[in-house]
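Protein modeling request. Please complete all fields; requests missing the sequence field cannot be processed.
Requester role: graduate student
Desired output: 3D structure, token encoding
Chains: 1
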Amino acid sequence: MNLTCRSLLCYKSHPLHTVLYTKGAGIVTLSTDFLLGRNNPRFLPMLFLIYFKIDLDHTADVQLHAWGDTLEEAFEQCVMAMFGYMTDTETVEPVDTVEVEAEGHDMLSLLFHFLDEWLYKFSANEFFIPREVKVLYIDRVQFKIRSIGWGEEFSLPKHPQGTEVKAITYSAMQICEDEKPEVFVIIDI
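Delivered output (189 residues):
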């Protein structure tokens, strides 16, 4: 199976799953066939392992895997991976600015609320889709984060419609900072 690159978005697909890689972030789409183990293991992506609790009540979950030189960059790339699943972010122009702040009671809840706030900006009346997100700071003591995004309102004639993200989940959520910071988040589609 070949890995095809187009601009900053790369993808690899098979009828039972798709893998997208964008600027240091990976997205894995898992079908019901995959969740039930009907895939041939040779088609599994080799860039990272997938660890999650399987919930067969849902037709599909997506795991976002993002990394960066700093934890801030990993969080930024995780947001962009989520939006990259919803549309082609290369079609977004940075004409508007939106700020997002979030709080949690620990780092995992902070990541959850951070992604949830960005998803709200898209799902609510703003329908904002970022081309780029920058984390301004992460307070690891009080578990607060502040970020800014540059983008525009989502428009079907301009932006290709991807898959709707219904919710962020805590399922198998991880923040790893051993070597390079990376985060793993499963979203419900």
